[in-house]
What does this fold into?
Amino acid sequence: MSAAPPARLSEAPWRTRDASAAIACTTAETRTCQQLHHALAERQQQLRSHGTTSADIALFEPDPWQFVVSLLALWHLGHRVWLPGDDRPETRQALQQRRIPWLSPSALPLPSARATAPRPCWGPLAAEATAVVLFTSGSSGEPVPLAKRFDQLDSEVAALHHCRPLAPGCIISQVSHQHIYGLTSALLRPLCEARPFGLEPAWWPESVSRLLDTLGVSALISSPAQLSRLPESLHLSRHPHDIFSSGAPLSAEAAATAERLLAAPVTELYGSSETGGIALRRQAEGSSWQAFADVETDIRDGLLWLRSPRLDTPGQWYCHADRVAPGAGGGFHLLGRADRIAKIGGKRVSLVSMSQHLEALPEIRRAHCLVIEHAGGRVGAIVEADSAAQPADHHSRRALIDHLRTRLAEAFETTALPRFWRFVPEWPVNAQGKLTRATITRLFADLDDRRRVRWLGTRFESADHCRVTLEVPERLLQLDGHFPGRPIVPGVAQLDWVVHYCREAFAAHGDGQCFERIKFPLLLLPGERVTLTLQRHDARIGFRLDSSRGCHASGRLLIAPRTTDLDP
Amino acid sequence: MAETAQTPLERSLAEMIIETLELEDIATDDIDPEAPLFGEGLGLDSIDALELGLALQKHHGIRLDSDSEDNRTHFASLRNLAALVEARRAT
It folds into this structure.
């Protein structure tokens, strides 16, 4: 393509464009360069009268226009702009501890009335100066500030432009500009490539459809969260020229569906806050990632190493914590993180930090957070609470989860909060003291098979005596229709558990033949936690199913040595 | 238990929400028709909103509004969601 190369941020292209040039647009209006200058000058005036002297200022502003006006106003006044990813109490506190003032443009005093419009101060933007400081989760889980110079951001814009220049039209975005991807793709590229950026929220597919129909859209800046959830009924009269996705890889199916429904190529970008853009792919053309022309990659010990002009030290090789395998055409395939950083809804979450936050609570002894692939990549938590805090039934479990989610919400975004909780009576380790993959799978097995009771641990008191902790999932299949409006666990389901766990505990002694003296003294309800006690005497296994309310089932199972190798 | 009684439509929407989002701790009775579904309240998030948009379309043939503010209102509570389904049935 023969598009002109993008302007550099250090050249401040917004300063010299025509007064009538479109900087941003909505379905109703266009904001011109002149309006930008005016707003920028007013913002600088506000900042001055506010007495903002610190070199570092934190900016959190969801509105793209207000954000850009503030960002440019601060840049030209010589400030370094810190971009927190959210405005949670813990985030604000972390900045406060660094003595970095938090700027909320809407809270600034209104500019004083003047006869003549104020003129912007166009302080220089030096290529080697720090432009923004982003936050990213380091491998320890603590948010690590990451400074980006103007030349690093310029390199990012130029690399993206080189791969896919922005076609004429408006750039609309579904991602946050407080992060590197949204900042460069949705705002800096439009500013440097002279394309207007959209100002209306575009979270919903229906909103995107309206914006596409009304504005001439050049590119949709999106992420897997949205592109993998597009409705089949999305009928567009106009389509974007390009779709970009970043944050996490798109599934092949989602990429194909998005291309079909939006009728435009989906370019996936791969990179990180530390490295900037590394590679890209369009799955319609191939599944392996191809590095940008200016990035050198290497695979060492299964990890991705790279050299890039966008790194802090461009000449040096940098090890990225992503595991990779060689792919077609000199590219590579991503195999997942080598550390415990997860991507939830496109944002990095430190699972280590989340576990530590839980463990810091007085009633929690131990916690382990992990991504449950089954549930579209949501987080699950294995938690050992003090015995007094262990949930006994639906209500106490909900109350505990609600409490834990509320506490975690002080530090993590809602999408990252654990959705699946397993409150284990004791930490479920193997003989080597490790929490194994097999145990984890077992703890969450009821998610994939609704016929299963939730297993939370087995403890052997002796070779013939064990206790199995179980919980009745609210969505247990055996509760369906038993009974409508007042679900209780059928006795036959409870006996199934007895047979299952007897076989697991005492398989060497034979299989269950028949039950004796069965009693169901108390109804068992969804959400209740029960202990199944099994005690073997020769060919008889006595069982009891107890909850905090009392005994729900008891009896004996007679076993006989197995006569055939075939499982019943 | 919910503070206010659920209508049959609200109950079926509560079931749809639980099924769609695989909320393992929530029973249909737990969803108060007037309590917020997002943020505090049920604690749903922006990704859930997209999932629910899809489910509404699949089960009730409803397309959401293109206006984010309107959708915010529709998804504010179970009652509002039921009102949306009722309104679209009528038209």
User: Anything to note?
Assistant: Chain B is about 55% helix and 0% strand. Chain B has one domain: 8-90. Residues 8-90 of chain B form a domain with the Non-ribosomal Peptide Synthetase Peptidyl Carrier Protein; Chain A fold (CATH 1.10.1200.10). The helical segments of chain B are 8-21, 46-60, 68-74, 78-90.
